[in-house]
Amino acid sequence: MNRDVDYCDELLDMQAFKNDLQHELNRYKQEILDQLSLRVNLNAYENLMIKLPDEQGSVPLNHIAKVSLKNPQMLMINATMSPDKVALITGALSKSALNVNPQADGAMIHVPLPRVTRQHRESLVKNAKNLYNQCFERLRRVRKHHHDGFAKKEDSVSKDELVKTIKVLDETVKEYARIAEDMMKQKQKELMNENL
């Protein structure tokens, strides 16, 4: 197995590959903390990425609106700074793993917070699986990016070295995917614990 790693280093930067995978794992961990909580976490709302139209990219919600907790059952989003973005904000909230149904009232958005019921817990468990699937897809994209990087060098190495390198690449992605899956299962178990 050590020799496989040597072959791999000749074709790609294994440390950069692992750093990219770790970055995606850290991103997933943060998504779990922000979006899959039984308690209200304002950061989850403030850091929710809002996709802007016309290839302008995405910005966190707190860059275009003010988020505040009106009471334990209601979140208020004041979008008077960007009233033209209200529809984008409500759409992003509805599609998020936060399990909320925002109601727009002009530039104000009322977000009734879900009660912690068994149904809400099950919805969060389902969202945990969705976040895992998104993470897994990002891990696969990292693998593809690095594979494409060394695919151009295929002519300079033997077929055997290439096969071993691809095997190491695949095994490394599987290892990170297993870690992500374990994180998902742990969070699902925590969410279904009625004592919380």
TrEMBL record:
Q: Which InterPro entries match?
A: Ribosome_recyc_fac (IPR002661), Ribosome_recyc_fac_dom (IPR023584), RRF_sf (IPR036191)
Q: Which GO terms describe its cellular component?
A: mitochondrion
Say yes or no: keyword Cell wall biogenesis/degradation present: no
Show which residues constitute the signal peptide.
none
Q: Which UniProt keywords apply?
A: Coiled coil, Protein biosynthesis
Q: What is this protein called?
A: Ribosome-recycling factor, mitochondrial
- Coiled coil regions in record: 11-38
Q: Which family does it belong to?
A: Belongs to the RRF family.
Gene Ontology molecular function terms on file? ribosomal large subunit binding
The Gene Ontology biological process annotation of the record reads: translation
Looking at the record, the residues that make up the Ribosome recycling factor domain are 33-192
Q: Pfam families per the record?
A: RRF
User: Which taxonomic lineage is given here?
Assistant: Eukaryota, Metazoa, Ecdysozoa, Nematoda, Enoplea
Task: Give the highest taxon in the source lineage.
Answer: Eukaryota
